[in-house]
């Protein structure tokens, strides 16, 4: 990446490949003209994975990325439209998503990423979105779109921004569609587990898990909009339930740091605040949880706002048994067919070029 201004900027502004904020500072101090940043490529495609948020007691403060399906965003240079963002097309959404950039999570993430570059883009950006995740699934569908868009646009300009900074673009996007929380978009960008201490200001910790971790994800044909699932949350919580969730949240973090899948499973299985009010809204979920445990899962809960159910297992062989039991329970107890059922590993990479 290189920067240029009209007229030519001082040396400090030209050295903005890794620190684009220097270009703005040079403009202010030296009184130069507007500083621009050029793309380094004509087109970039980026992928961001599905995420599992909350993980039981980690409501709004814990999430992780999982391998398998995700969203792909392609960013293309628009030479004669500086700073503009347009959405050319969206596939895989059934025509439900808006092509108006300021009203779509990919458009919002792209717009915010351009703002973060630290200098005015000398071109516009056209986006295409390929949805690999179903809407309203509890698998971080909007976060995957936002993360892929942010990484694609950043890559178009030579990756001047670290992934951590792009979380701000994802937060702006999430705020428009599902709420101002980073437990999906942070792991979608960074991979692994992310503990969110605060969003204002953003304060998070990526947690490393030693070894492999296996998840069973079963997504039934039932939509659970985040807004509706948040509406049932209690306004006040008894002290006993708070103490339980604090202990289980601590156990969840301990399990991650110790590389203990069984402890993670036990912790996510023990939410006493959110799952008890959301679970009954997902037909058959109680039976699905019981079936998962009986088939050998360490624990089972709701992924994000649902309706996807997530279980932690020791290995893929146990995962296949648990998956079959969960699918059967959704059909028998909930009367629900299943969109997808899979056994996947923790994704430690997050957003990447494809």
UniProtKB/TrEMBL annotation:
Signal peptide: none
Entry-linked Pfam families: GHMP_kinases_C (PF08544), GHMP_kinases_N (PF00288)
Boundaries of every GHMP kinase N-terminal domain copy: 112-192
Annotated catalysed reactions: L-homoserine + ATP = O-phospho-L-homoserine + ADP + H(+)
UniProt pathway: Amino-acid biosynthesis; L-threonine biosynthesis; L-threonine from L-aspartate: step 4/5
Domain GHMP kinase C-terminal: 254-331
GO molecular function: ATP binding; homoserine kinase activity
Keywords for the protein's UniProt record, in alphabetical order: Amino-acid biosynthesis, ATP-binding, Kinase, Nucleotide-binding, Threonine biosynthesis, Transferase
Entry-linked SUPFAM superfamilies: GHMP Kinase, C-terminal domain (SSF55060), Ribosomal protein S5 domain 2-like (SSF54211)
GO biological process terms, semicolon-separated: threonine biosynthetic process
Entry annotated with the keyword Glycoprotein: no
Enzyme Commission code(s) on record: 2.7.1.39
Stored PANTHER family: HOMOSERINE KINASE (PTHR20861:SF1), HOMOSERINE/4-DIPHOSPHOCYTIDYL-2-C-METHYL-D-ERYTHRITOL KINASE (PTHR20861)
NCBIfam families for the chain: PRK01212.1-4, thrB
Similarity comment: family membership: Belongs to the GHMP kinase family. Homoserine kinase subfamily.
Protein name: Homoserine kinase
Originating species: Chlorella vulgaris (Green alga)
Taxonomic lineage of the native organism: Eukaryota, Viridiplantae, Chlorophyta, core chlorophytes, Trebouxiophyceae
């Amino acid at each position: 990446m290189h920067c240029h201004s009209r007229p030519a900027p001082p040396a400090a502004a030209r050295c903005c490949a890794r620190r684009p904020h220097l270009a703005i500072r040079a403009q202010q101090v030296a009184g130069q003209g507007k500083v621009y940043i050029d793309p380094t490529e004509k087109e970039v495609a980026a992928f961001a994975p599905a995420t599992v948020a909350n993980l039981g007691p980690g409501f709004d403060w814990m999430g992780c990325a999982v391998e398998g399906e995700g969203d792909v965003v392609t960013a293309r240079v628009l030479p004669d439209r500086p700073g503009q963002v347009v959405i050319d097309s969206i596939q895989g959404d059934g025509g439900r998503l808006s092509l108006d950039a300021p009203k779509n999570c990919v458009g919002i993430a792209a717009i915010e990423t351009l703002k973060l570059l630290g200098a005015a883009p000398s071109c516009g950006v056209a986006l295409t979105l390929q949805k690999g995740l179903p809407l309203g699934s509890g698998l971080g569908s909007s976060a995957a779109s936002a993360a892929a868009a942010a990484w694609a646009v950043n890559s178009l300009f030579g990756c001047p921004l670290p992934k951590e900074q792009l979380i701000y673009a994802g937060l702006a996007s999430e705020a428009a569609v599902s709420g101002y929380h980073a437990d999906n978009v942070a792991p979608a960008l960074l991979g692994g587990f992310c503990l969110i201490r605060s969003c204002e200001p953003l304060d998070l910790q990526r947690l490393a898990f030693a070894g492999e971790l296996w998840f069973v994800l079963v997504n039934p044909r039932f939509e659970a909009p985040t807004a509706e699932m948040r509406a049932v949350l209690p306004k006040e919580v008894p002290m006993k339930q708070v103490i339980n969730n604090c202990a289980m949240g601590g156990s969840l973090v301990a399990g991650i740091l110790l590389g203990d899948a069984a402890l993670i499973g036990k912790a996510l299985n023990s939410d006493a605040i959110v799952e008890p009010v959301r679970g009954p809204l997902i037909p058959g979920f109680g039976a699905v949880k019981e079936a998962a445990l009986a088939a050998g899962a360490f624990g089972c809960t709701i992924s994000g706002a649902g309706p996807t159910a997530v279980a932690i297992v020791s290995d893929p062989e146990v995962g296949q048994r648990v998956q079959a039991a969960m699918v059967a329970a959704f059909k028998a107890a909930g009367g629900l067919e299943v969109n997808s059922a899979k056994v996947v590993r923790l994704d430690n990479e997050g957003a990447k070029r494809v």
